[in-house]
Structures are given as C-alpha cells and as structure tokens.
Amino acid sequence: MSAVPDKITLSADALARIDREIAKYPAGQQQSAVMSALAIAQDEHGWLSTPVMDAVAEKLAMPAVAVYEVATFYTMYNLAPVGRYKLTVCTNLPCALSGGAHAAEHLGKTLGIGFNETTADGRFTLKEGECMGACGDAPVLLVNNKRMCSFMSDAKLDELVAELRASGDAKAG
Amino acid sequence: MLTIEIDGKAVELPNGSTVMDGANKLGVYVPHFCYHKKLSIAANCRMCLVQVEKAPKPLPACATPATDGMKVWTQSEQARKAQQGVMEFLLINHPLDCPICDQGGECQLQDLAVGYGNSSSRYGEAKRVVFHKEMGPLISAEEMTRCIQCTRCVRFGQEIAGVMELGMIGRGEHSEIVTFVGRTVDSELSGNMIDVCPVGALTSKPFRYSARTWELSRRKSVAPHDSLGSNLVVQVKGERVMRVLPLENEALNECWLSDRDRFSYEALNSDERLDEPMIKRVGADGTPQWQPVDWQTALEFVAGGLKDVVARHGGESLGVLASPTATTEELALVAKLARALGSDNVDFRLRQSDFRGDGQGEGIAWLGMPVAELSSLDRVLVVGSFLRKDQPLLAQRLRTAARKGLAVDVINPVDDDWLMPIAHKAIVQPSAMPSLLAEVLAAVLAAAGKSLPAALSGVTPSDTARAIGASLAGGEKKAILLGNLAEQHPDASQLFALAQALADATGATLGCLTEAANSLGAEIAGARPQAGGLNAQKMLADPRRAYVVLHAEPEFDCANPLAARAALEKADLVVVMSPFRHAEPYADVLLPVAPFTETAGTYINCEGRAQRFNGVVRPHKATRPGWKVLRVLGTLLGLPGFDFETIDDVRAWAVPPQDTITAKLNNRTRVAVAAPVRSANGVERVADVPIYFSDAIVRRAPSLQRTADARPPRARMHPTLLERLGIAEGAQVKVKQGRGEAVLAAVVDAGVPPGVVRVAAAHPSTCHLEGMTGTVTVERA
Ligand code: SF4
Ligand code: FES
Ligand code: FES
Description:
The complex is a heterodimer. By secondary structure, chain A is α+β, with helices and mostly antiparallel strands. Chain A has seven helices and five strands. Chain B has 23 helices and 33 strands. In chain B, the strands form eight sheets. Chain B has a seven-stranded mixed sheet, with helices on one face. Helices cover 27% and strands 19% of the residues of chain B. In chain B, helix 8 links the parallel strand 16 and strand 17 (346-347). The interface between A and B is medium-sized, with 12 and 14 residues. Bound molecules: iron/sulfur cluster (SF4) and FE2/S2 (inorganic) cluster (2 copies).
C-alpha cells in the first residue's frame, strides 16, 4: 500500500460531477448525494482512503464519521486498495444455499486467495457481497461493481478467470 | 387527545404519542435499550416488542404510534415470547463477562437478561469479537464486543452534543461503533455517552475498575463550575468521592451533565490538596519556610495579623478577594468579617473590568427567566459569550430549541462553532461590540418608526445589524442574553445599557448568563462593595496592606493577573483559604477549607434558584468547612455577631427565603446609553477562560487536563493579521500587554476578526498579560 497523504483535494472534474449529483436534491439536502459522491471519489482514487472520505465529507458539509458509515455499509466501496479485477460473490443465505458459498470457495482456491485478499500480481481481489437482488440466478458475482455474472458454475467461473487473466491491459471498469 | 389501553388500563395521550409514551405515563415498564426519552426513535433493538390488538405480529412500543382505542398488552404470551426471543438474539454475540465488566450491577442488559433471558444459551457457535477503540481521556471503549448497537451514543452526539463524533460502521454482524479513523471524542458533553450506553461498552475512564456500584453511597450535591447549578449524585466509597453522575432535574440539567461537572471530582482526591494549616516563617538561613501548624495557632496568627494591620493602617487597608464558586454562607461571613474590621473592600467579580454600572442597577442581574424557558424561545440574541464552553448545558438547551425553530443571533468577537444553526452573526473586535449593538438598536427603532436616543444620533446600521434587528423584532418569545465575555468587557456597562434599550424596543427579555456557580449567591451575600469600598480592580491597582483570598487563585482568576500577583506579593499579610496548596510565593498563611463536597452550603444559580447541599464526605485531613473557619476567626477577633453554632444558623442569617431572593432579581440598570466610541487602534486581545481552567478545582482535574480543550493556549489570529505581521503559522510569537508578555505559538484562525488576537486567560502561560481585553502587541519571538 502506498503512503496516503494527510489531505487530498478532489479534482475539479470530480467536484463538478459531485455538484451535478447534489443538484438532484433539494437545497440543503446535499448529504443525500453521499453515495454518488463516494462512487465518484472512488473512481478517481481507486479506493476510499481516510483523506478521500474527509474530502467528500467536507464537500457535502457532513460529519466525516457519517461518510465513513456509508462507505462501510456498502460492499461496492473499497476501503483498501484492490486488484485490477474485484470479484464480489454473493454469500447471503439464499445464494449460500444455492451454490454461492461453493462458488466463492472455488474462486478462492483457483486464485489462491481468501476474502478481502488480492493476488500477488495485483490482478484479482476476492470479496464477499451482500444480496444483489438476483437470488434466483445464484450463484452470482460482480466484476468491478458493474458487470453482473449469473449462474456461476465452477466451469463458468474458470472461464471468467481465464478471460480476465487474458484481458491483458483492458481497462478496469 | 386520544385514549389507548395498556394491560387493561386506559391512558389519555396527546396526538402523535407512541405506545411507549403511554406506558411511561401509566408507569408500565416496557423493556427497552435503544429508546431514550431525550433522543430520537431508532427502533433498532426490538426489545420493546408488545402485542397490539389486530396486529398480526408484535410491534415495537417505542416506534408504534398510539391510535385512539388501541389495545396493547405488554405481558401477554405473545409479547413475552417476542421479548424473550429478542433477548436471546442480543445475547448471541454479547460476551458473558459480567463479573469483569465495569458496568456490572448497573447494566440494563444484565438486568433485562435476568428478567427475559434464559439461564443457559442455545447458541454454541463462535461469538464475534469487536476491537477496542481509543476515544480520549474520558471515555473508555476497551470492550466494544459488549456493544449491542443501540446507537444511543451516536444519536446523543448528533442530537444533544451537536457533533457526530461516533458513528456505526459496517452492517449486520459486522457493525461497530467507531470514531472517524483514529479521532478522539472531544465534545464538552461527551461523558453523557457513558450514561446513555445501556451496557458496559462505553465506560468512564477515570472511574473504571475503582469500585462496584453497590459499594457506593449516593449523595446529592450541586455542581460548582457554571451558573446552571446542575444537580449531582456524588457517589462515595468510604470517605472518597469515586464518581459524579447527573441527578435528573428537568428544570436545570435535565438528565445531562457537562464533562467539567462530571469529571472535576478527580481534583478533590489529588495530592495538591492542602493537608493542614501552614504559616510562612523565615527560617534560620533567612529564607521563608512553610511550617505546618494546628488550627489554633493558624487562626491566632491570622487574627493577630489582621488586628495589627487594621490597627496600624486602618480598616481600608484590608481587601477581600473571593471566588464566586464559594458558598453563599462563606461569602456572607467573609464580607461580614471585613466590614466588622472596618473594610468595605470585598469583591467576587474578579474578572470584571468595567464597574461603571455599580450602584445603577435596580436589583441583582440574572437570567431574566427560568432556565427551562430558554427551551421555548423563538428568538435569541447572544452577546459576548463562549457559550459552549462557559455554560455547556445552556448551549445544549439553545441547540435543542434551535432544532425546533429558535433563531439564534450572535454578536461576538470570535466565531466559535456552537454546533447549532446560527441565523445571523456579527463577529467584530471587542471595542466595536457596543457600536454594533447600537446599530441593531438603531435598525429596530428605525423600522418601528421611532426616533433614536440623542446619544446614538450618528449611528447607521449595517446590513448585519439590520438583519439581527429584524430577527429580534419578529417572534413571540425572545431574549437578549449577555454572556461572560460581555460581563468581562471593558465596556460592560454600555453593553448592558444598550441590550436593555434593545430589549425594551423589541419586547425581548434581557438576561445575564452570569459567570459562576454562585455569582448570584455572592450578590445576596453582599460580597461586593456596598459603601464606597474598593472593587476587585481597585483593590489591586491601589494595593492593600492585607488580603484575605477565599477559594480564588488571583494569579489566574483576576482580570489583571499580573497586577494581582504584584499587589499580593507586596502586602504585609495574605491569608489564603483554599482546598489546595498554592499561592506559596505571596501567601503568609494557608488555611485548608473544604471544597463543595466537604461542606454544607448554598449556591444560587443564574435563574435565582437557591440550592442547598450538604457535605458528601468528611473533610480531607485537617481541612475545615470555610464557614466554620470564618466563624471562629470572627469570634477570635472579638467581632460581634459571629456566634453561629451550626450551618443552619449561618444559613438562616445569610440566605433569605426563596421569594425574597426572587424579589431581588432585576436586570434594570439606570446606566444611560452613550455614544459608542470605537477606540483601540492596534491589535486587540480577546480572552476566553478555557473550560478546564475556569476555577481552582478543574485546573487540578487530571483527566480533564488531558482533553483537547485543555491544550495550552495559542495566539489565534486572522490570516491577514499574520500576513501583515510577517509571521508564519506555528511560529512562536511574543504577545505583550501592559508590562507583561507571553510567548505562544501562532495559529491561523479565520474565526477571529482581522485586528484581533485571541489569547486565552487563566493559564500559566498567559497569566503574565495585563488584562483580558485591550490593546496588545504581537511580534515574532
Ligand atoms: S456503544 Fe453503547 S450506546 Fe453506543 S451503540 Fe453500543 S451499546 Fe449503544
Ligand atoms: S442472496 Fe445472493 S443475490 Fe440475493
Ligand atoms: S426500544 Fe424499541 S426498538 Fe429499541
């Protein structure tokens, strides 16, 4: 993990995007934009370090610890640096009973890492996710928060890993 | 109104009430954890499940709105089963460590587990573990595994303290209470989080593991640190004060306590206590030596010394400097003693610098209304106050009222964050405060089509003044409150006169927050000049031959600490009555007198409420209650009228009945409004009295001294001033005032007006500066 500076300022572009989010809510309700603001900040910095959350808190005039509450509630926010591909497997009860737990285990074995760990080459991070509202498609997983993969049998998981390994320098979503 | 029935008993409730309100009204106990009558409803613990007619499932009493005709059962089969189920869930992750838990014996979870839990657990899997947290010197969060996620502590911060310092991160089984990455909890009300925490997750760091609740005797007392007079339960083991908790009094402190009132007791057990009377004698080698003596010797020495000074130089050569934290009885006796010796030089207003209002008032200055009425104001203008730090729980009242629509306006020389919405504020240098108030008055009069008093003819209101005026002109219940800084201001009498004129013009009530726990008691006791005697300032400017110092530390407590020091050092005889060993450089006799926990006494708070208290422990070693010492001294001196036998005798003489006190409260002053003069060119000083340096007791309370509020003062300046002076942030600067100077670190503070340096008073590093206000010079050190 590289050293994190004490204070970070978000880029003008990020701030402008956050302003657009704030504008969606009534005046004085800028805190409602906290989830999108965190997402924007994460897109810019890769993960939400303390100073990044501080910057979001300052921008939205809310207590830093309240930003922290949100950032820790949702598994899509990264509170530590992650690999190029973050694989988030749902292990909530309905999924767990329909192969989700097994899928996670299989992925872990294939990649040689546990939950919240990153492969030595920095390519994969494995995460445990909460219900994605797709219980019927179990096992399900998300690649980099944005690509949803359903019915992930062992074979499909192996295929996915192979694809991502091969995808070389393709931009992380 | 609506009527519901709980367990067969009918109760009438206002619309918008919950089932829990009904149960409370009926005195029916519904088990609960997250519900707290002063906090918002979270409904997250589910302990309060009850059966409601026609509802298919049990409902949480705290969050279920009462509807007319609703029937509720709190003890039915369904309700009990639900409550037992919730308890079983709560205990799944709760450690079974009550024997080593500091909360043991006073834990809601422990109590409710006895009533609703099973004697053994069906849960055999691993329990979760939550890491401990560092929250600062007052709150211990060493055992967060015990937390049941009720979020009371979080809501307390958000809603009462006004600052969200704790939050709950994660979700589900991974939820934990944290501060934001490594920060401490710095609120001046933080100790209340320990009280609201229903389990042993948040505990008192100073108290932890020092006693079990059932070993403690509980004794009532009154807090000595601010003008609210919070009610206390002092918990005692043997002859030692172990802990202080709030005694609920809805009219004053509600169920809260400021950290100052809660943790200051540590000083009472400190090794800085004075054990026995001491006399300074010149030793064989010519250097002064402190000699412990018995009371007889000490008092004879004092009586002889006082007699001698009075005989040689007259009664007026004696001065009495008393702290307004002394009891009314002590203050009345010390004033009587001085007058009987022929001196009217008695004063408790040690930090005051403008005495032009003396003799002009029609009564004793007070809050102008009961404390509880602050909660129902629509408009308030606070003038010259460090509200949050001077009267933390009055600030809390205004904060809570502000959430319900109170518009708070401020005229102050610093822009401190009061953690409440401020409608309008004017932040100006101290010398400009009277003219700003005059502008507001001018704006109000102009808007009402009335003419200005002649003295204010040249005044034209600024936009801010107009806005404040308009705000005050509106609203039904309104008040103008003068804070400690207004009282200590060099133009205090003008601020008062202007505030009175403004109150008259707007129909607002004029109130004084009043400086100390017993400022009003000191007035009742006559502890200020009554017949042309010297006030606190003059007594020091024109030094006396002898001084009696009661509970005060003049080197910190006086407006001009340097002058105080010099006068005391020069005097022939200085008698210091204090619970602590101090004043050695200038005192000749040290008499150990009891602090509030070791003597009976009466404090009169800002609303004029006389509150009696008794000693809760025996006095430390040879310490004696101050009233006894003064009584014996009076008798030894052969003065008439000192033959009191008991505290009740003293009280009957010194403290009038409540209605007599109430009848004396009056904020009218005859001081006429004068044309404001904007003097002071050069840099002006603003001095706050930091919350944990306000009196002799808190200065010696070790845990409070480790908080953020107790950090040494720095020279706070507006960025433009720093730039003008060519000083970098963090550099050492020399602040000179009068003959004194202080070397401090400079810090940028945009909340200080451009021509002002903020340097706190009452601290060893700044007690060589002359005066709390006035012009200073700042230069690179
Ligand atoms: S620390 Fe105490 S008050 Fe705070 S959530 Fe946990 S149990 Fe409740
Ligand atoms: S439980 Fe996995 S998607 Fe719902
Ligand atoms: S007290 Fe009602 S849910 Fe906690």
